[in-house]
Write a structure and sequence with these properties.
The complex is a heterodimer. By secondary structure, chain A is α+β, with helices and mostly antiparallel strands. Helix content of chain A is 23%, strand content 33%. Helices cover 72% and strands 1% of the residues of chain B. In chain B, a hairpin with a 7-residue loop joins strand 1 and strand 2. The chains are: A alpha+beta, B mainly alpha.
Chain lengths: 382, 330
Amino acid sequence: MAEEPVGRPSEGAASAAPSTPPGSDGLDLIDVTKVFPGGTVAVEDFYLHVDHGEYVVLLGPSGCGKTTTLRMIGGHEFPTRGDILLDGESLVHLPPHKRPTTTVFQHFALFPHRSVLQNVEFGLKMHGMPKEQRRRRAMESLEMVGLEPLADRKPRQLSGGQQQRVALARVLVTNPKALLLDEPLGDLDRLLQLRMRVELRNLQRQLGLMFVHVTHNQEEALSMADRIVVMNDARIQQIGEPLAVATRPETELVARFMGDNNIIEGLVASREGDRLIVENGIVRASVVAPGDARAVGDKASVAVRAAAVELDRNGSGPGDVNSADCEIVFVEYLGDLVKLHLTAGGDRMLAKVPGEQYASLRGREGETLRIRWKEEDVRLLR
Amino acid sequence: MSGSSGEGTPHLDVEELEQAEELVEQHLPKAEGALGVAEGPQRRGGWITALWAAPGFGFLGFYLIAPLVFIVLVSFWTYQVGAKSGFVTDWTFSNYTEVFKDRVYWDNMWSSFYRSLIAVAACLVFGFPIAYFLALKVNSLRNQIALFVLALAPFWTSSLTRSVAWTFPLMGREGALNQLLSKIGLSSIDDPLIEPLSETSVTLAMIQLYILFMVTPLFFTLSQVDRTALEAASDLGGNWWRTFREVILPQTMPGVVIGSIFVFVLTMGEYGTVRLVGGNAVSSVGTIVNSRVELAVQYPQGAASAVLLVLALIAGVFVITRFSNLREEL
């Protein structure tokens, strides 16, 4: 298992490399690339390993290739290159109805002319299960999502949340090896979305089933995933646990997409061992980056989370490394916290401080303020 | 997913979800009220709708209902040589008893019905793939519309021109179709598969003339089918045929029914195509009614045969609508 897989690109997808080689248990996407007719590259050099029982979220802005990736796993698109394996067996040449995966589609895709029960039993019917048995199984599945009293309704007589649950019952009854969810909460009201996140995640834990979930919602990804795959422009940007993706972005795109990061683009001003000082002419930040090969004078960008920024109320005199003198542009009160929109010599900066500090910050737009952050909160971006 | 819902059985905490949904729903009416959405147009709506419908009703009443009522009246009046219009307004049922006894009429009723049945079936069989292709295989709406308009192209010419084209240029003994068939060895010019002025040529002409009345409603109902639902069906284990049978066809039944009604009604009462493409060799209920009126000037009997045809059509349409609950599904 410790054997390092061969033949993958060294840069870019390095962090995407699965920890186990293909041929093992779980889902493997190996060098998957999808080029649409007309030349649009939807997915490129995609490597991913998902374990059984793992909840993986593909996260990215619309058009980043996340849905195409999901559709290739489900068999609704065929990869131009690469292989998709489930428990070591290639799925690529199987049509959707022969794959052990099922999808919960974005707008539920229920059959409008069939009752709730008939929707749920559809998969079993297709697999040739006798009527009595599949009725019973479908009712059990409906019970699981609490909809057995509505078994005879038509989908259009249900609310959005109920339709969502029918869609879930319909796929779960077929005992898939992997459940694919395409923006499953996108059609729900926000309040229901928040509830459903927790419920869906609990259900997945109880079932111990592999879930691959596509969303463009950062918060949703952070709250639900075991691991997040951040995608942008057809490529994987970063794969990691929610905590890592939120606090240790590896690329500028991830830092920007996850939001509320201060990005300092500049040059390496000095270097002592693994410690680099990155400077953009106004702000200087130090970062410890073992293994980074950049020399003095090379381009470098670092990210500092807005939440890691503190106000330095006693600071005066010349600015130090990992601090900046800023002008307050806007004080945004958000209840639990205050978002300070700042500018340091033209560069936009952002600080998030506890809500209690609002009283002392209110109305101070235009004034100067010193901020600082800790070296361990600085991330060197690729 | 095992039997009872005891502890440890996977389930969603439904109560919480229901509460969330309830909250959402409670707020909706308020929001709609604030936006003025909920203010009902129902109260005043009736009169305004009636006003809008009035011209249409007037038109239908004058050109459709009135003549129909008149024909029914005439069918119960008495034929009299020398009288104005050839009948007097004495009530009688004899026109109907005459028609009932008339073997030729019933033979034609049967053959017209049979021909209609073949036309409906053929239009379905040939029309469905066209509609299916247009609605589900062509991806952009623009291409769909372009191809649909192209399919309508034959309708840009008058039906008379088309009927004439069918007779000799296309289906004459040495017409295009027979030449083609003899080229590929299916028949010879001397012993053609399609006799001109025959039952076969009339049926073929009708299929070509009316197939678009089948394709159009099929196209529109197929366009309503949610493509992701088809993906879901294949995802859940349905192959192409099962998906078609279980998901596409049931949703398309309204289109099948409406198209069948169109083709059935139009072909059953056909007169022009039968005369032009069939010549004197083929007759239909339509040509019989016409000969009663035009040649024999027997308006009351002609009217009675026409009324019976209308009744046959109504019966046919009634039977066809049994195949789908239009009111619920449209």
